[in-house]
Hints:
- A hairpin with a 4-residue loop joins strand 1 and strand 2.
- This protein starts with 5 loop residues before the first strand and ends with a helix.
- The chain is mainly α and 165 residues long.
- A two-stranded antiparallel ribbon has the order 1-2.
- Helix 1 runs antiparallel to helix 2, helix 5 packs across helix 6 and helix 5 packs across helix 7.
- The protein contains seven helices and two strands.
Amino acid sequence: MPGAHACIKSEVRCIAISLKNQIMEDMKSAMKAGKKDRLRVIRLILAAIKQIEVDERKETDESTVLGVLTKMVKQRRDSVKQFEQGNRKDLAAIERAEIVILNEYLPAQLSTNELTIMIDEVIQVTGANNIRDMGKVMGQIKAKASGRADMGAVSALIKKRLNSN
């Protein structure tokens, strides 16, 4: 399953494959299978990762790759909204298809219930009791839910919780 550490079993050892390597392997299989749309999205992912490596002059780690994927999904969601407002259903459909491929590499998203429980725990731990404490709560939630939740939705839930206190 893309997005998780795959394990290649041999008789002697089990090798964990990084997310970046998994994406590279998927690119090879998409080429062999002739899946042009999938290949295009995977190449976009690898180009974004490579851009960060060149800019920062270092290898990317798992959290950086997840950040790239999350950013790409967010960009496409924004594009879908724009295309639908502009009555361009064809382009919106392309963006949605790209989101599906990108989501294959992201960890499973937290449910609203799980997020609410996490937010309540952080509010108790930080002692947050009004909207001015939102930064404290958001910082801890961001660390815990990185790549597993839309931070815009998380922000709205935190505001709702802090305003109800």
